[in-house]
Specification:
heterodimer; A: alpha/beta; Rossmann fold; Alpha-Beta Plaits; 2 domains; 6-stranded mixed sheet; 10 helices; 13 strands; globular; B: alpha/beta; D-Maltodextrin-Binding Protein, domain 2; 6 strands; elongated
Chain lengths: 304, 414
């Protein structure tokens, strides 16, 4: 059984008469990338703030590293909030050292690590510059660096990719992957589903304060899979045994979605294609929706 | 890392960062110049109230030298002189408030020219002039033939005794006694104003640029607030030490300047200044911290802080009252109000004497208010630092102060 880093059980949180978090429960396992999804205002940030003990839940329990969030446990966490900012009239290195020492590093250690991280982020020559002299993207990289500066066991990153160009997104992704490969746990909130598909092991989706999806990314995609196959090629798809209907897609690549009759497996359709001799096949895959489609579907369903 | 170390780290950062600020350097070195300018202005203004003889009316005369021989040459001064057999009787009359002050001419007056004025509270400069005129007029009429030439040239070498305090005013150190409290008051305002201003703008900056959210995952809001107050308090003390050192140098170097001659730093005044400075600094800074936490912008917080700073300088508008009646109702009331107490107490010590009971009561009220404000500010601070986007309403702030937790925003950990 995987070791739990965070355990959230039946947590409720109201703002006045508005219920921001409505009885959610989930666990985050050691060494995984755990994605928190949900539309704006769904309760993600409130849940993160409760995990970080910045807000108290109205009821329910939250355990981090097996217990309440004491100071020693807090030093093992790195946090990148969604609303970001830095001291403006301070040197990059000076601010990094300050935030590092607040997390328990010695000044010397904080300085060495900061310099190493800046080099890693191709910003080694910026260390003596004032924050206000940096571009927005550079400032964001500094913030991400500060999050992992003290080599935490767990990082909670709220929308880490927002505002980054593709090159810097890649740099960040590498940094997060490296952090995970060292055994670190990542809780990540994002609207970029491709990042979740590429990086996350498990996900949790919250909408209007309520839990909507929870599990491994693969399991959730399969849960939303249609009984259909996506194909590309040439031939009479409708003539294949077990195909109920054909939905052609005009995407310039002559692809089609084959809806299958109940009890017909995708394997038997593949066998029929290869043995027909009249069909030229270029692509064959299960019609599993991407996370973006699932996200939109969940939100739409709850709007009704 | 212990809670103490975290507070220390915040204090260290606040101290070192603000020490290098241009506005701090300007305050440290530019303000002394401004203070001296103010000194001269106040000196000019005070001349007027110094001429008010209305409070003295009757002045006793104890003449051991026999020079006056019970005779007074009529003078065009608004005081009435009354003879007493000796200084003891005159002192008795002063204690009974039959007279406002008395002058004592010692037996060897003709040789030394020594004249002493005894009173409770301040001796108006006009009284000194009246005494000078009296002696000059009498010397010219009743002087014995063997009167030293010195006395004709310089009839009075005045010493003034302010009875309650036992302090002696010689002509040379009158500016010191009057102006030191005022300088201290100005220094206090400048120093605590600058540092608590830094405190407030620092909090507003951290809140508006959202770094506060990262900070409070490392230190608790109360540790953050305590660290800031300690760091900036030390900065304020540094500022005072620099000013103090500059003052000492100025006084040492400037002994030749009559205006500076004789200035010393009375221990009681320094002690009272120290105690009131620390308490008032905490009162001002905790208030500023609370305001910084609920303000939406630096501009908005400055408006509030200006109002609070005005509360502290109210006593300046009552300087004439402090001079005329250091123990009058206005002075006592201002001493008891925590916001006006620091300035008022300094003025009163300078111009008269503060009964110990009043000082204890004033300190107690200031201490209790500071304590209450610190608790309230800490509560508002920890709630409001993460409450951004829209400014909390006054009702919400009251709600936070009333309840241990609130519906809006909830509490963060202390």
């Amino acid at each position: 059984m995987p070791e739990s880093v965070i355990q959230v059980e039946r947590v409720f949180r109201n703002y006045g008469s508005f219920r921001a978090v409505d009885g959610v429960s989930f666990e985050v396992h050691r060494g995984e990338v755990f994605a928190m999804l949900g539309p704006n205002g769904s309760g993600k940030t409130t849940t993160m703030r409760m995990i970080l003990d910045l807000l108290k839940p109205d009821s329910g329990t939250i355990a981090v590293f097996g217990g309440p969030l004491v100071d020693a446990a807090r030093d093992r966490i790195g946090y990148l909030p969604e609303e970001r900012g830095l001291y403006r009239n301070v040197q990059v290195i000076e601010m990094m050292i300050y935030l590092g020492t607040l997390k328990g590093l010695s000044r010397r250690d904080a300085q060495q690590r900061s310099q190493r991280l800046l080099e890693r982020l191709e910003m080694g020559d910026q260390s003596k510059k004032k924050i206000s002299e940096l571009s927005k993207g550079m400032q964001q990289k500094i913030q991400i660096a500060v999050t992992v500066l003290h080599d935490p066991d767990l990082i909670i990153v709220d929308e880490p990719f927002s505002g980054l160009d593709p090159v810097n997104s890649l740099v960040l992704k590498d940094l997060l992957t490296e952090f995970k490969s060292r055994g670190g746990t990542i809780v990540m909130s994002t609207h970029q589903m491709t990042q979740v598909e590429e990086m996350a092991d498990r996900l949790f989706m919250i909408h209007r304060g309520q839990q909507k999806l929870y599990g491994t990314v693969d399991a959730i995609r399969k849960q939303y899979a249609q009984h259909a196959i996506i194909v590309e090629g040439r031939g009479d798809w409708a003539a294949l045994p077990g195909v109920v209907s054909v939905e052609t897609r005009e995407n310039g690549r002559s692809s089609a979605v084959l809806h299958l009759a109940e009890g017909v497996s995708s394997d038997s359709v593949l066998v029929a294609i290869t043995s027909s001799g009249s069909i030229h096949i270029e692509r064959f895959e299960l019609a599993v929706p991407d996370l973006n489609d699932i996200f939109i579907r969940v939100v739409e369903e709850n709007r009704l | 890392m212990s809670s103490f170390s975290r507070v220390g780290l915040v204090a260290r950062r606040e101290y070192l960062f603000n020490l290098r600020r241009r506005s701090f350097l300007f305050a440290v070195f530019g303000v002394p110049l401004f203070t001296f300018a103010m000194w001269f202005i106040i000196f000019a203004v005070m001349e007027d109230s110094e001429n008010d003889l209305g409070k003295v009316e009757k002045v006793g005369v104890a003449d051991a030298s026999g020079l006056l021989d019970g005779q007074i040459v009529p003078l065009d001064v608004p005081v009435q002189f009354e003879f007493y057999a000796d200084a003891t009787h005159a002192q008795q009359a002063l204690d009974d408030a039959a007279i406002g002050a008395y002058i004592s001419l010692p037996a060897q007056y003709l040789r030394s020219g020594q004249v002493e004025i005894y009173s409770y509270g301040t001796v108006p400069a006009a009284l000194e002039d009246a005494v000078r005129q009296l002696l000059l007029a009498n010397l010219s009429q009743f002087a014995p033939p063997d009167m030293p030439f010195d006395r004709i040239q310089n009839p009075v070498v005045m010493s003034i005794y302010v009875n309650d305090t036992g302090r002696t005013l010689t002509e040379a150190n009158i500016p010191a006694l009057f102006f030191l409290p005022m300088i201290f008051a100005l220094l206090f305002m400048m120093s605590s104003g600058v540092t608590s201003g830094f405190l407030m703008s620092g909090i507003v900056e951290e809140k508006t640029n959202r770094i506060i959210e990262v900070l409070v995952t490392s230190v608790s809001p109360l540790q953050l607030l305590t660290g800031k107050i300690i760091g900036l308090g030390l900065l304020g003390l540094t500022q005072l030490l620099i000013w103090g050192a500059a003052g000492m140098v100025l006084i040492t170097v400037g002994q030749a300047v009559p205006f500076l001659n004789g200035i010393e730093f009375p221990l009681t005044l320094m002690l009272v200044f120290g105690v009131y400075f620390i308490l008032s600094y905490f009162l001002l800074s905790t208030l500023m911290a609370g305001i910084g936490a609920i303000s939406g912008s630096e501009q908005e917080s400055r408006q509030y802080s200006t109002i609070i700073s005005l509360l502290f300088i109210i006593p300046f508008f009552f300087i004439p009252n402090f001079i005329a009646e250091p123990n009058g109702t206005t002075a006592v009331v201002l001493t008891m109000i925590p916001f006006t107490a620091p300035m008022s107490i300094l003025f009163r010590i300078g111009f008269g004497v503060v009964p110990p009971v009043q000082m204890v009561a004033s300190l107690l009220l200031l201490f209790l208010t500071t304590f209450g404000v610190a608790l309230a500010s800490a509560r508002v601070f920890k709630w409001a630092v993460l409450h951004y986007g829209r400014r909390p309403t006054l009702w919400q702030v009251f709600g936070v102060l009333r309840a241990s937790r609130t519906a809006e925003g909830g509490e963060a950990r202390l």
